[in-house]
């Protein structure tokens, strides 16, 4: 348990940031899941539309520091490739 005032403040800040980051990660996963279900359904137009909505969300996650830039780019690239092959 923290005893210093600054350490207690740090704990409060970490809890807030953790909650924000967790919600961002969850939101990204939800967007990706909609793309995955559209691909699984075989609907190319719906999958492309879902990916257009998911891509900015991924990049916002990168800007927020929730995800690495290369990871987000790789995921988008692979999803585009899968949609193209439908």
Structural overview:
- The protein has 86 residues and is mainly alpha-helical.
- It has helices at 5-41, 44-64, 69-84.
- It has a single domain, classed as Up-down Bundle (Methane Monooxygenase Hydroxylase, Chain G, domain 1).
- The protein is 86% helix and 0% strand.
- The longest helix has 37 residues, at 5-41.
- Rg, please? 17 Å
So, the CATH homologous superfamily?
A: Ribosomal protein S20
Low-confidence stretches: none
The outline comes out as elongated
Total domain units:
1
User: Count of helical segments?
Assistant: 3
Q: Examine the coordinates and then state which fold CATH places here, giving the name of the CATH topology.
A: Methane Monooxygenase Hydroxylase, Chain G, domain 1
What keyword list fits this structure?
mainly alpha; 86% helix
């Amino acid at each position: 348990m923290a005893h210093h005032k600054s350490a207690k403040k740090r704990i409060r800040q970490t809890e807030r940031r953790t909650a924000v980051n967790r919600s961002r990660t969850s939101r990204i996963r939800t967007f990706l899941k909609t793309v995955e279900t559209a691909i699984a359904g075989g609907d190319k137009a719906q999958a492309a539309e879902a990916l257009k909505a998911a891509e900015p969300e991924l990049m916002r996650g990168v800007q927020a520091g929730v995800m690495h830039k290369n990871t987000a780019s790789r995921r988008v690239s692979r999803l585009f490739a899968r949609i193209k092959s439908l």
